[in-house]
Amino acid sequence: MFQRFCEWLANTPWSIALHESLWGYPIVESVHVLTMCLFLGMIVMLDLRLLSLTMRTVPVSQVAGRLLPWARAGFAVMVITGALLFYAIPVRAFHNIFFRIKIVMLILAGVNVWVFHSGVFRRVAEWDLDPILPKRARMAGVVSLVLWASIVVAGRMIAYNWFDCDRPQSSLVNTLAGCDPNTSE
Amino acid sequence: MSLLAFFTWCEQSFVGEAIRNSQWLFPVIESIHLLALVLIAGAVLVVDMRLFGVGLRRQPVAQLARDAQPWLIGGLMVMLTTGILLFLSEAIKCYYSSAFAWKMTSLLLALIFTFTVRRKVALADEGRVGPLWSRLVAVVSVALWSGVGIGGRWIGFS
């Protein structure tokens, strides 16, 4: 069903226009990368703080409180530009294994944020300036760093066609990427 | 040796050849390049935002700058190493790329600015630099580093 939706999306005039544009696509992609610097720059500094690897004398609540609004603003732009990049190549993205990995990782990163904010961060006042933060806070930092690094790498790899359906693929890739082996050349 | 001869020599170097001949090396090095970018961005922005008067406003600038410094230097080392490797694999393309020339110019200016003016302003005693100057330094810093990032992205489009 989502396949049909992607095909319909790919045939809308704006999708074709963006896909074929000389400047539109590169500009959207540049904005995506620049905003990544804002969004993930803030996230990385917060994660490093959770691991007591930087800004040790600044309370965690202050780092989170002052940096996360910027991260949220950046994330909003990331989602919009990301959606536009998907909109330009919906069918290819849908069957791109790195795109699928990226989406799964994004969901996991969201779960990590939820676990952190609904759990150990609620009692941040108790450990705001501890030399070594509670295990759950450190875990949230490590998981966040690993997931976001994977998301960046997976995102960059979407550009490569190694695992595209129109090339001969192993059955594992065919399953993961949702390729129909009968239609590939 | 002319510049073109030097770039050709880079392109034909053993390392450049090895990266070009591998399907995976370039993407892997480029991914590390991107991850270092995020680290540098974080280390730069935390201080620049503070200089501008937003973000961690309750902290002294000098202390934030000192805290961010090792991550900035570390990120830059990774960035330069992976950047040189990427360059070696496509030096001739870079020679004819105006985006590459733009990026190198911005990079040089950004590095000089960061380790002279910005460093001095960030580490100055509280109150010695007026808020307007601090803001100007922050804007110039973000503009120069953005120039590097945009230039880098556009090398791939040309």
Number of helices of chain B: 7
What fraction, in percent, of the residue positions of chain B are helical? over 70%
**Proportion of beta-strand residues of chain A:** under 5%
Major sheet attributes of chain B:
none
Distance between the termini of chain A: 23 Å
Q: What multimeric state do the chains show? A: heterodimer
Mean pLDDT of chain A: 93
How many distinct beta strands of chain B? 0
How many DSSP E strands of chain A?
0
Task: State the share of residues found in helices of chain A, binned by percent.
Answer: over 70%
Concise summary:
Chain A has 185 residues and is mainly α.
Please tell me about this protein's structure.
The complex is a heterodimer of chains A (185) and B (158). With 185 residues, chain A is an all-alpha fold. Helices cover 72% and strands 0% of the residues of chain A. Chain A is built from nine helices and no strands. Chain A starts with a helix and ends in a 9-residue tail after the last helix. The mean pLDDT of chain A is 93. With 158 residues, chain B is mainly α. Chain B is 82% helix and 0% strand. Chain B has helices at 3-11, 14-21, 25-52, 61-89, 91-95, 98-123, 131-155. Chain B is elongated, with a radius of gyration of 18 Å. The mean pLDDT of chain B is 95. The interface between A and B is medium-sized, with 33 and 34 residues.
